[in-house]
Design a protein that fits this description.
The protein has 401 residues and is mainly α. Helix content is 77%, strand content 0%.
Length: 401
């Protein structure tokens, strides 16, 4: 049967990024042939490119029901589940896709990503290297290996893999973004922000919040030690010994200088790009970042005032309260990230509902088992109430004579 020209055009549209046109043509084809698993798998891919991950997963499920032995629908289902954060289910789909097509690199790369997201880094690394061995000139394999090393916190290995991938595909946005995030972890602020700005300019709808990392570093990067340090200064202030008070003022000065130097270094190197990106994210995330910056600034100002002007406990208490405010602000920032990606939030809500339903089911089964055990115990006669039949105390031998 000759290929439908609309299907050919839809594939071409998907390759050049005209996904809305590709979706329209694919739905026209499916209106005439609704049981075409190949078309459904391609539609799942297009929907995923449009950011409609739940719909992409549903379409992939339809394709699997029609052609369960075709690896492509399993691949698309696994990709959609990864985007939704359903890592355990994505791993199941990836394993099935690899079982059906063990010599295809794409399925192995999906499996490597799913394993990495489940923190099975050693196996993920082996699978990614196996996929690269099947096609060494395929840049995506090197980028997936870089992502696996990134999740395993092996930044040097991640950088080498990303650079190998960029040698094969210098304009690849994913590889440039990944290398920029590695630079961010290594405090190469200017280079990281420049690369992220270029990627955001080419793909304005992709990863809009990653340019905010300098602001987040300034707002929340000090939370792990700023509050404990301020608390120690407060305790030292209330000891009542002059020598301890002098030590507390010196400690406050050191904290102020270190925090100020770190924040100024990040902001000076980052430039205005992160502040412009702040307008592209949800209001929850904006408020969280601004609140974090305000809490950090207030803590530093209070500690500076304590060290230089007023060595009194109320000033340090205010510093401790301001530093403690970084934690709820960070929680709001996490929620804002979910607000920026409603599909991920919906998947999280679905997982939570499934967990609650499973907990209720377990409780009903456990309660029924306990009730049955209680009734069985109540109806069992005591030893002094048992009337033994003749020969009941004689041992019975049921073996061969």
């Amino acid at each position: 049967m000759p290929a439908d020209p609309r299907l050919v055009h839809a594939r071409n549209f998907a390759e050049i990024g005209r996904n809305a046109d590709a979706e329209r043509l694919l739905r026209e084809v499916l209106a005439a042939r609704p049981a075409d698993a190949h078309t459904l798998a391609l539609l799942s891919y297009v929907l995923r490119q449009l950011g409609r991950y739940r719909e992409a997963r549903r379409v992939a499920d339809e394709a699997i029901a029609i052609a369960p032995d075709d690896p492509e629908p399993h691949l698309q289902r696994g990709e959609a589940l990864l985007e939704l954060g359903r890592f355990r289910h994505a791993l199941d789909s990836a394993r099935e896709a690899v079982r059906l097509a063990p010599q295809r690199p794409r399925e192995q790369l999906l499996l490597a990503r799913a394993l990495s997201d489940r923190d099975q880094h050693d196996e993920a690394r082996r699978v990614a290297e196996s996929a690269i061995a099947l096609d060494p000139r395929h840049a995506q394999g090197h980028f997936v290996l870089a992502g696996v090393e990134w999740n395993a916190r092996r930044l040097a290995e991640a950088e080498r893999a990303a650079r190998r991938g960029l040698e094969l595909s210098p304009t690849n946005a994913q590889g440039r973004w990944l290398l920029a995030m590695i630079d961010a972890k290594r405090w190469r602020v200017r280079r990281s922000v420049r690369a992220l700005t270029e990627v955001a300019g080419e793909q304005p709808t992709e990863r809009p919040g990653y340019l905010l990392w300098p602001l987040e570093a300034g707002a929340f990067g000090l939370r792990w030690w700023l509050a404990p340090a301020a608390l120690l200064v407060l305790i030292a202030t209330n000891v009542g010994m002059p020598s301890v008070l002098v030590g507390a003022r010196i400690g406050g000065t050191v904290i102020v200088l270190a925090a100020t130097a770190m924040v100024l270094r990040i902001f000076a190197a980052a430039g205005p790009a992160p502040w412009h990106a702040l307008r592209t994210v949800s209001r929850w995330r904006r408020r969280a970042i601004v609140s974090g910056l305000a809490c950090t600034g207030l803590t530093v100002v209070c500690l500076a005032t304590f060290a230089a002007v007023a060595p009194r406990w109320p000033v340090v208490t205010l510093a401790v309260v301001a530093a403690a405010g970084l934690w709820p602000a960070k929680l709001v920032d996490y929620w804002g990230r979910l607000d920026d990606e409603p599909e991920i939030r919906a998947a999280f809500g679905a997982d939570l509902r499934d967990w609650v339903a499973e907990l209720r089911r377990w409780w009903r089964q456990t309660r029924a088992s306990l009730r049955d055990a209680w009734h069985d115990t109540d109806t069992t006669p005591r030893d002094d109430q048992v009337t033994r039949a003749p020969g009941a105390g004689v041992e019975q031998h049921n073996g061969p004579a």
